[in-house]
Write a structure and sequence with these properties.
The complex is a heterodimer of chains A (236) and B (267).
Chain A (H helix, E strand, L loop, with lengths): L1 H20 L1 E10 L14 H4 L14 E2 L5 E2 L2 E6 L12 E6 L2 E3 L2 E5 L4 E5 L5 E5 L9 E3 L6 E3 L5 E6 L7 E7 L4 E3 L5 E7 L2 E9 L3 E9 L5 E3 L2 E4 L4
Parallel strand pairs in A: 1-18, 1-19, 5-8, 7-13
Antiparallel strand pairs in A: 1-15, 2-3, 4-14, 4-16, 5-6, 8-11, 9-10, 9-12, 12-13, 16-17
Chain B lengths: L1 H20 L13 H33 L15 H31 L8 E8 L2 E6 L36 E3 L2 E4 L3 E8 L4 E5 L4 E5 L5 E6 L4 E6 L12 E7 L1 H13 L2
Parallel strand pairs in B: 1-5, 4-10
Antiparallel strand pairs in B: 1-2, 2-3, 5-8, 6-7, 9-10
Classes of the chains: A mainly beta (236), B alpha+beta (267).
């Protein structure tokens, strides 16, 4: 009994400071140069989905989303070395929705072995086909109203995922060995929290423009470091 | 009992001919320049097969009616000349029938497959892949750029595997999800399969042609009536086969020009 209390106290002492004095890395991802044009998607094949989009605002491809000030959305920024949190799988599942014949979100980042729930909100059938290489490749169909599909990936990998019935549906499952990741929002910003002092390698990955790395050191407790990434653009 | 059976056979034969004779299920309206040849051929075949069917059923009914309830099971009569003559007569009769249909039908067939499209026909390529059709127009240069299967990328809508960075001909190619064509203009449709066997079928156009992987085939046709018609895959190709379709949009030349302008802006 006493032993258990001592252990708990010791654990609290170990974890406590980490949580309280943990550092944060935040920053912005931008692009220098052109990015591939967002092309209009013609969904006439699937009237059930086409009706979700007004003619003035047609759906478009999402391979590179440039915002104001050359910022880039949907870039995955993650701690590729130094975090040592491999194996701490978050208990809550990430959700992928299929709505209006799109993947929401276009990029889904998750931890190795973390649960993923794939839902079909459309009145039409989809099939989910992750083109995995390191993980097992699979292809499951999901009719309208079918229960969510549970998925899990046991290897770190950037997996393109597509729907064969609606070839324009395309996204990525980014399976990482760390919980310290962030996907940039529409303004291109990201923030990775709860990093204890230490030396880290930060990687930013964009599906079309590739990836780039930077070294970051969180020195003192509670320090916030700003790291900005700039990708070199390409037109195609 | 035999007489009742004979009557039932004749009644079934007549009942099954009624919907066809009265055109209860008419064919979809024909919107192509060559379609009437196909329709005439279908009608000829139907008349010929219909007569043969009814004659066979009536003769069967007659014989059953006349001889079924006989007490004496002995032989009634032999075919004049015996079995050999009967087989030879059947072969000649059926052979003539098939040959006649073939000769009558060759006009429709040859017009589609043995004669090339006219020189000013508009070239469009269609690519079938699980589970959608896409179409490619050569653009102002009139040339379709080469396809590179390794460049196929659904994410960027590069369904044809084009490499505009290196291939000049690909830069002005226009890729669409619907087949827009001007009315009364001959279309030379090149057919390419991305993965396996599919089929291009527009019933109003009276065109049905399989895609064969590795073989680039061609069909040509002229649509004569503006409208929107369904293009469906009629070769079972996988779990999404039921949903593999696109639309044929036949427009006036002005509408087509506007449509093409819109599509070019979306590339």
């Amino acid at each position: 009994m006493r032993m258990k209390q001592v252990c708990t106290a010791a654990l609290a002492l170990l974890i406590g400071p980490v949580a309280v004095f943990a550092g944060t890395i935040s920053g912005k991802v931008t692009v220098d140069g052109p990015v591939p044009k967002q092309k209009v998607i013609d969904m006439s094949k699937e009237p059930a989905c086409a009706k979700d989009y007004p003619a003035t605002n047609p759906p478009k491809t999402e391979t590179a989303l440039e915002g104001p000030g050359n910022t880039l959305a949907d870039v995955v920024v993650y701690v590729s070395a130094g975090a040592n949190d491999e194996g701490t799988v978050p208990s809550q599942a990430v959700t992928l929705e299929q709505k209006g014949c799109r993947y929401i979100k276009h990029i889904t980042a998750l931890h190795v072995n973390q649960d993923m729930q794939i839902k079909n909100d459309d009145p039409t059938s989809h099939n989910i086909h992750p083109l995995a290489k390191a993980n097992r490749e699979w292809n499951k169909s999901q009719p309208p109203g079918a229960p969510p599909i549970d998925a899990k990936f046991d290897q770190a990998e950037f997996i393109p995922v597509k729907c064969n019935i609606h070839p324009w549906m395309h996204g990525y499952f980014v399976v990482l060995k760390t919980n310290h990741f962030s996907v940039t929002g529409d303004d291109g910003t990201f923030s990775i929290k709860d990093l204890p002092p230490g030396k880290y390698t930060l990687t930013a990955w964009q599906e079309t423009l590739g990836s780039s790395q930077q070294e970051v050191t969180i020195g003192g407790a509670g320090e916030t470091k700003t790291v900005n990434f700039t990708f070199k653009g390409k037109a195609y | 009992m035999g007489k009742l059976f004979a009557v039932v056979v004749v009644l079934i034969a007549i009942a099954s001919a009624i919907p066809i004779v009265l055109h209860w299920y008419p064919m979809a309206p024909d919107i192509s320049a060559h379609g009437h040849l196909i329709d005439e051929q279908m009608a000829d075949t139907m008349v010929e097969a219909g007569f043969a069917f009814l004659a066979a059923q009536f003769i069967l009914g007659f014989f059953v009616f006349r001889f079924a309830d006989r007490k004496d099971p002995g032989k009634i009569r032999t075919f004049p000349g015996g079995a050999k003559v009967m087989v030879a007569a059947a072969v000649i009769l059926v052979g003539t029938e098939v040959l006649a249909l073939g000769i009558l039908g060759q006009r429709a067939w040859a017009g589609q497959y043995f004669s090339p499209p006219s020189a000013d026909a508009m070239t469009i390529q269609t690519q079938a892949g699980q589970f959608a059709f896409y179409f490619r127009y050569p653009g102002p240069d009139g040339k379709l750029g080469p396809q590179h299967p390794d460049k196929v990328n659904e994410g960027t809508q590069n369904y044809f595997g084009l490499d505009p960075q290196n291939d000049v001909e690909s830069r002005d190619d226009v890729v669409t999800a619907e087949l827009g064509i001007p009315v009364n203009k001959e279309i030379r449709l090149l057919m390419h399969s991305k993965d396996l066997g599919h089929s291009f079928y527009v019933r109003e156009l009276r065109v049905q042609q399989d895609f064969v992987p590795g073989l680039d085939l061609m069909v040509h046709f002229t649509a004569t009536k503006p409208g929107r018609y369904e293009i469906v895959c009629t070769q079972l190709c996988g779990l999404g086969h039921y949903n593999m379709k696109a639309y044929l949009n036949v427009m006036s030349q002005e509408d087509f020009n506007a449509w093409m302008k819109q599509k070019i802006s979306e590339q």
